[in-house]
Amino acid sequence: MPLCNHSNSRFGNRRDFLARAAGGFGALAFSALHPQSVFGAAKAAASGTAISPHSTHYPGKIRNIIFLYMDGGPSQVDTFDPKPRLAAENGKPFGMKMEPTQFNSNGATLASPWEFKEHGQSGIPVSSLFPCVAQCVDDLAIVRSMTSEFSEHTNANYFLHTGSGLQGRPSMGAWMGYGLGTENADLPGFVVLNGGLIPPGGLDNFNSGFLPATFQGSIFKPGGEPVSNIKPTEAQAALQLRKLELTRKMDRGLLARFGAMDQLESSIMNAELAFRMQAAVPELMETSGESATLKAMYGFDAPMPQTRIFAQQCLQARRLIERGVRFVELTCPNAGGDRWDQHGKLREGHENNARAVDQPIAALLKDLKACGLWESTLVVWAGEFGRTPFAQGKDGRDHNPFGFTIWLAGGGIKGGTIFGATDEYGYKAVDKPLMIHDLHATMLHLLGMDHTKLTFRYSGRDMRLTDVHGEVIHDILS
Length: 478
What we know:
The protein has 12 helices and 19 strands. The protein is of the alpha/beta class. It has one domain: 3-Layer(aba) Sandwich (Alkaline Phosphatase, subunit A), CATH 3.40.720.10. Strands 1, 5, 6, 7, 8, 9, 13, 14 and 17 form a 9-stranded mixed beta sheet that branches. Helix 2 packs parallel to helix 8. It is globular.
């Protein structure tokens, strides 16, 4: 199959391909609806559709990505970027020029309430907020010099997820599905495990934008029914198939009359996927076969309800990538204190959020190794920005896009490393500053995709996730 740069394809681009193949596309999609006992990569490849596994620009080091989205913006100086100067000058006027902040209620220098200790053979310091993740520090590449172009949640979330601060661009998960396809015909290629909080900016953080709608994120909810309306509508599968066959005939008639239409073609593909998900999703979400020891490691029996929610999400993330789902994003449970967005009550809010995610994340990293999925999976931990090293009011921190911390782990990552640095206060990136585009370029690179060649023709321009920016962060790669 041609590479994703449309200029390399003899069909021009995927939209041109769909237009030329419109007459038979509906039949091709619905041919997979009849009951079969074998699904997954083989069937996806055999179908030859846009979601089938595609060739990459070069051999990738990984096949799947788990994105741990820390909604609200964790404080870098309270998690993975210790700054002794904050303790030395706690309560004193801040020693640098303050940039305009979201609320401009700026106070004095604020020391971290948490102790940092060195961990692992690498000796990397980690806050006491993360005692479990600290045990895995030798597996992490900690980037202390990430920056964002936006200091407001909605625009920063769009920037983190889509590479643009404007609404309407494709999410990174959609781009990766577009570029690589899926390895499981029974499940979406891009799944969002909703812990209970949809981030500012809403579902547009997970949309397909101008890409075909097939590639948008599918939201799986916590609780008994993860996907709405997924249960069979008929008592007998034969009756449902007859209805779907009628829909196919009607859709084919429209395609024959009017030509290629993304809305209709994606609707056809989503209908076939929904049919197969009726069997795949219940099996996916059923964790009774997992050992009690494993569940306890994740935190299924933790005293805090939010820990139990995130534990289920992390285990489901492992099960999803185990089944070939390309990109899985986890959103945070509602631990109180308005996400990681502590404009006040920093100690209470950050401790609650860290307690919700720390044990499950560490368990996920260990479980990926035990299951043989470590080398084929990239795990990314990130919020949309960081927080100020000076106080907002007395006991909060405002938004800070000028320098914050993320980390990566798994396949292709050089564990036990630190990349970049902020100044002595942890305010601005001063050594090897990075942008979100660099993170996206690195994620695509590990999947075997050249971010400059993964393009889609839209509005007269070859669009890409990284726009005209982005460099692969080679120093953190193994």
